């Protein structure tokens, strides 16, 4: 008898993770592809390609094919998906895999079908597509099948999804394009306006991850030296930036996220609201790791907030749990 492998893919705008049933997460790489601009040949995918972002000579393009929660470059997305699936080396004694893909929430049905086709072309036997907030909630360990409300806030690279779930389905939700990437851009803008210093995307992300804070707590203030190009002299230059400054830089975007949570809560049926007061909000996605974000949300919304233990891996873990139950939907 031939066994068919079951594979879950979190096709995120920042990171792509692959879960193989029985093995766990086997691949976790940035969603970046570098190609030769002239020949259109793929030069590197994932971690190697991310190293090239912002550092490529003219002929080489390092592309993030999924940007701001949409598929900015379909051909390259397909190239990346196929590369990762092939890397798993699923062939051999196994027949073609069943693939469950979780993709950005506001893609169009055309893009959704295109992703499905790409997975079939990469060798899938059957393809299922799922919504990100639902899978994130499952991966965070929430039992969404119960008739009680659960709230999940997933902050990824391109999109932030807020959803309230009950009986296994999304009851109310919203999605906004303000997430990790936008916060990086906020930091770039702040440094440019305040210090006349131009920094790259990767430096901005490092600032956010290392000293970024959503809620100023004097006891945790830190500083970091950063370098870029001085806009006045045109020469390389180094400055020091503090946690407080990152809060200032990110404030507007974080307030947009708070507002989105409020809107979803306002549209929630009262019985479910009552559940959320006791069960709280669960934060998933890389943005959930931003220091002080839980405190900020708790203060603004007055409900408990929990950061999922495996925030960056919730969606991939969630696909794993869903694969266990695939026989129920097949
Ligand atoms: N410790 C951290 N603090 C703040 N932000 C972080 C941290 N670690 C990762 N991030 C950010 O999380 C984002 C990536 O998260 P994630 O992998 O969940 O996104 P994604 O699933 O690829 O995107 P999307 O769900 O929007 O398609 C990036 O913007 C990254 O900078
Ligand atoms: Mg995601």
If you had to describe this structure to a student in words, what would you say it looks like?
By secondary structure, the protein is of the alpha+beta class. It has 3 domains: 3-135 and 314-329, Nucleotidyltransferase, domain 5 (2-Layer Sandwich); 140-178 and 253-310, Nucleotidyltransferase, domain 5 (2-Layer Sandwich); 180-249, ATPase, substrate binding domain, subdomain 4 (Actin, Chain A, domain 4), CATH 3.90.640. It is 38% helix and 30% strand. The radius of gyration is 21 Å and the shape is flat. It contains 11 helices and 18 strands. The protein has helices at residues 47-52, 74-87, 109-121, 132-139, 180-195, 201-211, 243-266, 270-279, 293-301, 314-324, 326-329, and strands at 3-11, 15-20, 24-30, 33-36, 42-45, 60-63, 66-67, 70-71, 94-103, 126-131, 150-155, 160-166, 169-176, 197-198, 223-230, 236-242, 281-284, 305-307. The strands form 5 sheets. It has a 5-stranded mixed sheet, with helices on both faces. A 5-stranded mixed sheet has the order 13-12-11-17-18, with helices on both faces. The protein starts with a strand and ends with a helix. Strand 4 (33-36) and strand 5 form a beta hairpin. The structure holds adenosine-5'-triphosphate (ATP) and magnesium ion. Adenosine-5'-triphosphate binds next to helix 5 and helix 6.
